[in-house]
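Protein modeling request. Please complete all fields; requests missing the sequence field cannot be processed.
Requester role: graduate student
Desired output: 3D structure, token encoding
Chains: 1
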Amino acid sequence: MQPETFRGRSMPQVLERVRIAMGDDVVIVTTRGPSETDGTHYEVVAAPGGWTHTPVTTARHAYVIALVGPPGAGKTTTAVKLALHPGAFGGRRVGLLTLDTYRAGGAEQLQLFAEITSLPMEIAFDPPEATQALRRLDDCEIILVDTPGRGLRTQTDLEWQSSLLALAADEVHLVVPAGLRADVAAAVRESHKRCAPTHVLLTMIDELPTAAGLADLRAALSLPVRWTTNGPAVPGDLYFPRKGGSRPAQLARAS
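Delivered output (255 residues):
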């Protein structure tokens, strides 16, 4: 097993990802702070116990954004919206990667979108395949990762987590239907805490009778919001709650 790169918003978060993926008997190869990466993220290159040093290349070109959340939240459709909407990543070189190999037809749904839109797409069943898929898509500027609509409470549910951790996503958006009760939403966040979500992405806002409960929902999730969806149209019905929030800051500056 070769060294893997892990990234996150804080060093404790990154080290927790390392521990989950590789256990306690792990070799830390290199560490980098925000001043050495993109100004925001910490980075750790780690290898399993017993690994002996060989030169590794940790740099990558693509910015990786993963979507996680409960079944039916709209992760797959939202990934395609983000890839095509001119206010998000439309016009950029976007690649799609799915870890949704558990749900019948899960990968096929995204593959159909990819074929229609001529977007490159990869499917990964385990961590080695995930890292290989990432390399194949690295000529993209953005890689959007779709994941199974499952929690992380049982060993079966944890099977895809190692693949997600191996990707060392720059951002992890917890996708939650806007009509979810605040207490249920808090439980969803708790069940996905090992994914270390950095943002929440609210979907299906158009199905709410009023917007009265949105403030409570956002408070329960306590994560920043960059995008929401308010309908099924692709690539439309994507909403940007605050000015300048449609893209990660380093990508917006490059626009």
